[in-house]
Amino acid sequence: MSDLADLLSQLNASLSDHIGLLPMLLLTILALLLLPLSQVRSFQRGLGVFALLGLGVATALVYEMFAFPHLGFGTFERRLDESYFGGAMVVNAWSLFFSAIFLVVALLVCLASLSEVKRHEPHQGEYYALLLLATVGMLVVASANDLFLLFIGIEIASVSTFALTAWRKKDALSSEAAIKFFLIGGLSAALLLYGISWVYGATGSVQLGQIAAAAPHTTHPEALTLGALLMIAGFGFKFAAVPFHGWAPDVYTGAPTTISAFLAAGSKKMAVVAALKVFVIGFGTVAATVHWQLIFGVLAILTMTVGNVVALWQTDIKRMLAYSSIGQAGYILIAVAVATPDAIAAGLYHSLTHALMKGGAFLLVGGLAAAGVGYKIADWEGLGRRSPGMALAATLLLLGLAGIPPTGGFFSKFFIFATAVAAGDWFLWLAVIGLLNSALSLYYYAKVIRAIYKRPAKAGAKHVHVPLPYAAAVILATIGVLATFFFANLGFGLASEAAESLLTLTSLR
Amino acid sequence: MAVPQAAVLGLGAILFSLGFYGVLTRTNAIAILMSVEVMLTAANINFVAFGQYSGDPAGQSYALISIALAAAEVAVGLAILITVFKSRGTIDVSRINVLRW
Questions:
Q1: Cβ <8 Å between A148 and B65
Q2: Does residue A220 belong to the interface with chain B, where contact is any CB pair within 8 Å?
Q3: Which of B56, B93, B25, B49 is nearest to A183 (CA)?
Q4: pLDDT tens digits for range A283-305
Q5: Which candidate from A148, A182, A249 shows the least CB-CB separation from B62?
Q6: How far apart are CA A63 and CA A255, in angstroms?
Q7: Which of A368, A373, A358 lies closest to A471, judged by CA?
């Protein structure tokens, strides 16, 4: 009996020592619980709600930890900058900011899945379990402070999303998307790992702070440069940066729409976290010799321009959103290239607003598809009459993607360009090209809005009833997009805190 | 009798290049998968070599963990290949193109 009490008190002590890891732990346990639960025939409908509740609790935990009394945000005292496993994982404002983004995206996707995953479909337990595990992978990436742990987190998320993309086994498009996603994902993992191995060889460590300390004195700077190039290519694939973007439109089109939303809004931000962390911290001391800022600048220009130009003549909404996603990734890459604390904060804020806008837009497409509206832009004609609420949400989300007030997309894009201009030098050109791209992108977003409102509905077109879970997820995302506009001050304040806490990682050991 | 470090790293580089060449030129999905595995092996060899020559045992443990990760990835990948084969009757990626590549 006393043994049990001993064990419990030990467990309790070890839990309170690892409080920052609680969201990951919780989601992992729930994911493993979902598998046996899915065997209970009468519990099929409960699986999604169970996963949703778990994500809700995890979000609440992150909110509790993400406390900034001086910004009037959060409830308890701040619990920040805790490092675990000998500094391999650090839970601070940075990791919590991204954890919050990932969890919100997962919540919206899980909510919409209640309607996307039909009552009679097999393997529902696996679907929700994989969704939770993919989220765990992203949370690991958010708090990893170690190249190898970063790689493990990316792999957990990737392997789960490969399986999720192929979840509808009978659907030929879904499995085609999965095979492309898997092969490209495997290639990017190999590039990344080989790059990490060279960085390890050059600096003798995989921990970011130690890499930063050892990098300037390395006897093999060429090994360091090779490692950096390979890692940029590996991240480029995850990020869908041009010229590593070929897979993204196919995968986003073929995957179940909820999973497209998860990939575009969540999994892409994972590459942002990883790239910012590795290069700003690990390679921060050798920016002058490795030239990673220049490489990211070139990638940003290519990614913005190709993404926005190709989006112009897409007729399929999912494909258009996929290319717009590539274009938006280009804007975030500007922030990575500039890499001043302000620019990083702007990049973080755009990650947040883009996650809401793009997640909401994909879920809207999925909701309308569930209500019988097709995937072509022409199918959306007359939507203003057939479903005024969804038409309004679509308009706000698309305006947000174009960067027009009153949406958060306006401020986040503005912050990115403003910080690039403030940094001066050649970064100015990034802002100029970004602005030109924004103007260009307006055309294809406006084209959809025009189709929604200007053209009359076809004769005999009925009112559209979007299923409730989908509608709720879209409305929540739209509220988020508006909130990031009206509370931009608070949001940018949080992003700045997060960016600053990233920079303190250098001084950790 | 020690093998020079450059030789081990050279072996890794050769394997990596072979794997990369395979990914670019093969059209059979299983052959591409095998090429990716060869590239991962190159990374593992590097980890072991760097760990060994700098006297850091962590390098070998990284290689072990990455082998486990690669195994998990292959399990999921082969399952995906089977579903594709069932729905299409082929795993030749040049013929899997309903979605534009």
A1: yes
A2: no
A3: B93
A4: 888 877 888 999 999 999 999 99
A5: A148
A6: 31
A7: A368
